Amino acid sequence: MSVTYNILPEAVWSDGTPLTADDFAFTQDTNMNEEWNITSRSGYDQIINYEVVDEKTFRVDFGAVFAPWQTLFDEIYPKHVLEGEDFNTVWNDSITMGSGPFVFDSWTKDQNIKLVRNENYWRDTFIDGTPIGNVQEILIPFIEDSQTQVQALRGREIDMFYPQPQLDLVEQVSALDGVTSEAGAGPVWEHFDFNHSDPLLAQAYIRQAISMGIDRASIVEAIIQPLAPEIDVLNNTIWMGNSSNYEDHFSQWDYNPEAAVALLEENGCTLGDDGVYVCDGERLSFTWTTTAGNEARELQFEIAQATLADVGIEVTPTFGPASEVFADDAFYGDSDVWQIFNFAWVGSPDPFGGNTLYYCEGEAPSGFGDLNNLQYCNEEVDALIKSTDAMVDPAERAATYNEADAIWLENAAQIPLYQKPTFFAWYSDIEGPRDNATQTGPMWNVETW
Hints:
Blueprint: E1 2-6, H1 21-31, E2 47-54, E3 57-62, H2 79-82, E4 102-108, E5 112-117, E6 126-127, E7 130-131, E8 137-141, H3 146-154, E9 160-161, H4 167-174, E10 179-194, H5 204-212, H6 216-223, H7 257-266, E11 270-271, E12 277-279, E13 282-283, E14 285-289, H8 295-309, E15 314-317, H9 322-325, H10 328-331, E16 340-346, H11 379-387, H12 394-410, E17 414-427
Parallel strand pairs: 14-15, 14-16
Antiparallel strand pairs: 1-3, 2-3, 4-5, 5-8, 6-7, 9-17, 10-16, 10-17, 11-12, 12-13
Helix pairs in contact: 5-7, 6-8, 11-12
């Protein structure tokens, strides 16, 4: 299987250097260089040969049919800037080059990043000689706490924000004069993960009991539906609820406290004097990790903690800043680092980018797939997910993904929670912003602002 990329003749880097097939070749070589810290080589490792046909034409050959080929080369590296540099450190202090409407100018680490309009942007940004957009600079401050974000918007310390949607934020923003907002179903899905390195959580019946002890419907009703009434609990880890490929694979573990208790007792667990079940000599008491300052996740924890307590399962909070809980030694850590983890994955129309979540082996520090922080292996799921790479029939591919997901969730490998709505708010005197429910987010048309 071969794919040919035809690069637009006018495409240039922000310093005016043409973007060429050599940049594509350099990108492939960089991605496959094991000296460099590449997030994932999946897909690029299926390329067995490439050819720079001419300055603006690049061809790759795959060793076999590779259905998700369109997910590759979404990021191209500028060869004339990066060649000879240490890829692992070159971007520690600056993003050296871009080809979009805005480019990196500077940042104050842990505080903000500044973008400026690209004077060499190669797309036509004029209509009848008039520039489409007038914004020349964008300063993006890093504000983790959701309440601080809305206070900054209220005081016009910021002109727009794209927070994790939370009901009280929406209510506060709607009360601000001159602010426009949009909400919609996005590509991000919230979930609760189990660390399968824990001897208790490695047992399916305990994961299933925890699943039935969490009232997911109440969480969605309290946090999501006031903002996006069409969004319900998510019962699939591959396809979002608004996908035509979506199938329900988790409702058998819907909130059912009586069934949760029965399942524990059927497996020999006994209720302790403190109201917590003991299984295999161990109390069902687990740490619950998530990002501090996120009101929605803190409320999710409170609801889950209360309903789990009713079935004799204890969870205690271990919240921390994103920089800590997502550090490699924490995220991929054993159960002495985290046991239950609430966060979100960012999906895309093609599920291939999330495949390594299901892989038994990979480049994660734990030896599992790149995204497999759960440290869970199901050989049948692994094989099914990998087989989709060669399926060019979309219906067959979707059905195979669903077959794998059904097995994954029958074993309650993790708990899908909901498809997160997006929420974008900006002052109405800024013309042009519109939400875009993809990974690109609201910056998709920034050249028109």
